[in-house]
Amino acid sequence: MNLQVKTNIPTIWGYFTLHAFSDSSDELMPHLAIAKNIDTSGPVFVRIHSECFTGDLLGSTRCDCGGQFKNSMKLIGKEGGVIIYLRQEGRGIGLINKMRAYNVQDEKGLNTIDANVHLGFEPDERSYELAVEILKFFNIEQVKLLTNNPEKISFLKRGGIDVVERVPIKGTLHKENKDYLRVKKDLMGHFPDLT
To answer: Among 36, 87, 120, 187, which residue carries the largest CB count within 10 Å?
Structure first.
């Protein structure tokens, strides 16, 4: 994983530096780091965010991803830190299969886990090793991790990153994502402060 390019990006949450990381096999779909005023003399605010086209760009109320992303940009825009934006749509199954999983949920009444399994996938196929690599690129050893997902904490710790604090990150509760959030808490072990 190599840094291919970086550029300055003004946003409604402040000025950030956008870094694109890829290897020769994925130059058209790089993983991104959205950074502002990283200070490694102490713990750095970090959000590891998996790409969610429907939530991040379309504002889908089927999940809480878009709200979490915006709240992360707001906090890091104020406090400094980095958002690592991993290209692993649909819990790692890709956008097309995510859309198929949505159809299965609608047609058969399955939850997000059972829909993925119905299509032949694991409930969650994401990995966070690349996030560890990106943190090491920035020489970040201690983090205040913006997450509700204990799996991310475990991955970072196994990668030698000291998670000094878990910072709950809120999305937006809608009638369309109540069951989705319940599945994340009850079946995937996410922390109970999801809403």
So the answer is: 36
SS3 of 188, please?
coil
| C-alpha–C-alpha distance, residues 112 and 102, integer Å | 8
Q: Which of 122, 129, 146 is nearest to 65 (CA)?
A: 146
For the cut 60, the answer to whether the pLDDT of residue 127 exceeds it is yes
CB-based burial of residue 165 (10 Å sphere; 0-12 exposed, 13-18 middle, 19+ buried)?
exposed
Q: Which residues are catalytic?
A: 124, 126
Gap between the Cα atoms of 109 and 115, Å rounded: 9
Summarize pLDDT for 23-82 with one digit per residue, the tens. 766 667 899 999 999 999 999 999 999 999 998 999 888 888 898 999 999 999 999 999
Q: CATH number of the domain at 142, please.
A: 3.40.50.10990
Is there a domain that residue 113 lies in? no
Percent of the chain past pLDDT 70, that is, above it, reads 86
Q: Which range of residues forms the domain containing residue 6?
A: 2-88+126-186
Whether 110 is covered by a domain: the verdict is no
Task: With a cut of 90, say whether residue 182 has pLDDT above it.
Answer: no
Asked whether residue 22 is domain-assigned, the answer is: yes
CB-based contacts of 45, cutoff 8 Å, min separation 6? 75, 76, 79, 80, 81, 82, 143, 144, 146, 167
- Name the domain count of the chain: 1
**How far is it, in rounded angstroms, from Cα 28 to Cα 15?**
24
Specify if 24 maps to a domain: yes
